[in-house]
Amino acid sequence: MSLTVYPAIDVREHRVVRLRQGDYAQETRYAHNPLELAQHYAAAGATWLHLVDLDAARHGGYTLSPLVRAIKATTPLRVQTGGGVRDEADVRHVLDAGADRVVLGSVAVRDPARVAGWIAGFGAERITVALDTRQDADGIWRMPLHGWTETSPTTLDELLHVYAASDLRHVLCTDIGRDGMLAGPNLALYGYLRERAPTLQLQASGGVRDVGDVRAAGATGCAGVVLGKALLDGRLDLREALAC
């Protein structure tokens, strides 16, 4: 299986930002224009882009459709994007803007049966479910919601069981404790997910800091890896990551 590298652009108030462990109070702002950064990643050889609407993730109402249209008009990038997508009309709206895949987070945790229906209706290649998770004091992987500001009583294991029985193909899993920390990806978590649901195409996210981490994610059986802070801080060269 080949490994797909997804450079990530998180947008808040029209700016490129990164949050530390999903905390909106711990934001780093970057000088990049989101469209120009996407064009830069495309010029470096990226084929996919992971685009997140952080404002919508918190408050609902996806706002990046004009940016998606501009990226699709000026680059060959395929775009998976989400944030604030809460119902079927939202999914259709994002796809109509030109997105190749819609990322579903909170709604995928709250109502997996409904999301399974959307996957069947729109097609497995058009939906990515984000099972972003945080381990509690008892070692249980819990599921935060709404930009990681609330926590669902549903566990990662419970959701994985439901989605493994559906038509779902693409899963993005972020260990929130490692997001923005440059501490390396949680390979044990991804190995566990691969054992529990080997048919799912798993995207690793959170903590990737260098080419070695990219290779390690691929060796664990991940189908993709999302790169954020390491690219923005210049710690990781996108061309080197793509060469993996």
TrEMBL record:
Active site, renumbered: D10 (proton acceptor), D132 (proton donor)
Catalytic activity, reaction form: 1-(5-phospho-beta-D-ribosyl)-5-[(5-phospho-beta-D-ribosylamino)methylideneamino]imidazole-4-carboxamide = 5-[(5-phospho-1-deoxy-D-ribulos-1-ylimino)methylamino]-1-(5-phospho-beta-D-ribosyl)imidazole-4-carboxamide
GO biological process, one term: L-histidine biosynthetic process
Keywords for the protein's UniProt record, in alphabetical order: Amino-acid biosynthesis, Cytoplasm, Histidine biosynthesis, Isomerase
Any one GO molecular function term: 1-(5-phosphoribosyl)-5-[(5-phosphoribosylamino)methylideneamino]imidazole-4-carboxamide isomerase activity
GO CC term, one of those recorded: cytoplasm
Pfam families to which the protein is assigned, alphabetical: His_biosynth
EC code(s) of this entry: 5.3.1.16
Top-level EC class as recorded in UniProt: isomerase
Chief place of localization: cytoplasm
Subcellular location: Cytoplasm
Record pathway: Amino-acid biosynthesis; L-histidine biosynthesis; L-histidine from 5-phospho-alpha-D-ribose 1-diphosphate: step 4/9
Family: Belongs to the HisA/HisF family.
Family matches, as NCBIfam families: 1-(5-phosphoribosyl)-5-[(5-phosphoribosylamino)methylideneamino]imidazole-4-carboxamide isomerase (TIGR00007)
Protein name: 1-(5-phosphoribosyl)-5-[(5-phosphoribosylamino)methylideneamino] imidazole-4-carboxamide isomerase
